[in-house]
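Worked problem 6 (solution included).
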Amino acid sequence: MKKSLQFLLSVIFLLSLESCEHSYKLAQGAEDEIIVVADTSDFEKLKIPLQEIFEKVIYTPQPEKLFNLKRISPNEIESYQNYKNVILLAPLNSSSNTSKFIKALLDTSKFLNKNSGNDLMIPRYNLWAQNQLVMILTAPDLPQLELELVKNKEILVNSFHKLSDKRLNACMYDSKYESKNTEGMLLKSYGWIIFVASDFTIADNEPDENFFCLKNSSGKDMGKWIFVHWIDNASPAYLNEDSVRSIRNRLTNEYYKTPGVSSFIRIGKDNCLNNEVTFDGKYSLLTQGLWENDKEMQGPFINYTFFDEKTKRIYMVDGSINAPEYYKRNLIQQMDVMLKSFKTKADLSKEKQDELLKSAD
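Solution. The predicted structure is:
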């Protein structure tokens, strides 16, 4: 009886927040953690598909999970209402507390006015905190709910990943830690920019080879590298897996050598993924996996290669990490967000161009 009363009070409290205009605090919690609000029996029955969707293993080269799921009881929801990533999971034909909570949310007029699209997979942004995603996953019964999970797995992962990138973008691109003079030099010299954090330095600048590289060394046990390479008067025919592998291997072999050490750095044969994606509105090949050398060292890298119609250039933007003692899932995401800051001159407003060019003088 006491638990039922406590849960009822939590429902009333959270619905009152949802029904009022409120100045929310920023969402908290780890970027790679998803809080799953579900009754024990429902969660156990759907545990395998949930893990296959959200806890997919990536190799860095150590096996790490894309997201970590943490199930909580619906009686605990008030304590986790401000977390960044939340899932409410229950079938509608259940008498569980989570099902009752979902029905209460679905019945609010504010929700009905704002909701559209798939009634079984309902994203709620900024429900109880800023930059928060609460994903309502429901269906008439448990078998249908499992079917919807599997059918929409890519949409589910991308929804959480996209908002996570947005939060990370807001944290990283602080003008106080931006090297605008370097960005201005890149715009003036080459007609493109990439966000340059103040803790990155220029490792290589080879205008004759169309190659520019930044590095960040946070100590002996961590290193990050970003390079941009471009091919003038190019053809989209370069956009194939073999060309990307060949070009990247040539560049890393030439520019990523350690002084006094003969070590050929190349794309590893295992755990390399190739996908067709959109990069800032442009068709791109995404190559992601592990770099390796003949010293048995490995680390993760991410690479976007695309054709820019306006400049008739093939661009390759690439990020690598060497951090054998660290958990690297979040480092890879940070690198990905940095690479996506790449813009050509045509992508920048006149005001932004003038600002950066002034910084370069």
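Discussion: The longest helix spans residues 153-172.
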